[in-house]
Amino acid sequence: MEDKELERLKRKKLMELQRSSIKAQQPQKEEPESAEKLLDSLFYGRAWEVYRAAKQQYPKPMEAVEKALVETIKTGKIKQKISGEALCAFFQQIGIPVRLETKIMFKEHGELKTLEQKVKEKE
Fold first, then answer.
1. How far apart are the C-alpha atoms of 31 and 26, rounded to whole Å?
2. Fewest CB atoms within 10 Å of the CB: 14, 50, 111, 122?
């Protein structure tokens, strides 16, 4: 009885070893980091706002720009953080003029008012 049990345990262990050796021989595929995760590691300030506006306004060219940015980050050519202003200037240089929504706000008597509200009050 013990011999059969011992034999069964040996076969089970042998099968486990074979499986692990087969897995070790197969090439391990590196899990590619997502583009968003890579970009997030370097973007700060309003960079995401600028990036999303550019992607919405210029979807086709931004696919190529995104790939190029990700590649340069992966190769280590870009190491410093990227601000919204720097990203906007970069897009201007490569011919992608990004338009951002801007508002002029006034603080009057502890209350924030838009330029439109301020003009209406004057009338």
1. 15
2. 122
Domain coverage including residue 67:
35-93
Confidence of residue 66 (pLDDT cuts 50, 70, 90): very high
Q: Quick check: is 56 in a domain?
A: yes
Number of domains the chain is built from = 1
The pTM score is: 0.61
What pLDDT digit, counting tens, does each position of 83-98 carry?
Answer: 999 999 999 999 999 9
Taking the CA atoms of residue 31, residue 34, residue 37 and residue 39 in that order, the dihedral angle to the nearest 10 degrees is: 130
Within a domain: residue 121? no
Among the listed residues 44, 59, 63, 70, the one whose alpha carbon sits nearest the alpha carbon of residue 98:
59
What DSSP designation does 18 have? Answer: H
Q: At what angle do helices 59-75 and 47-57 cross, to 10 degrees?
A: 140
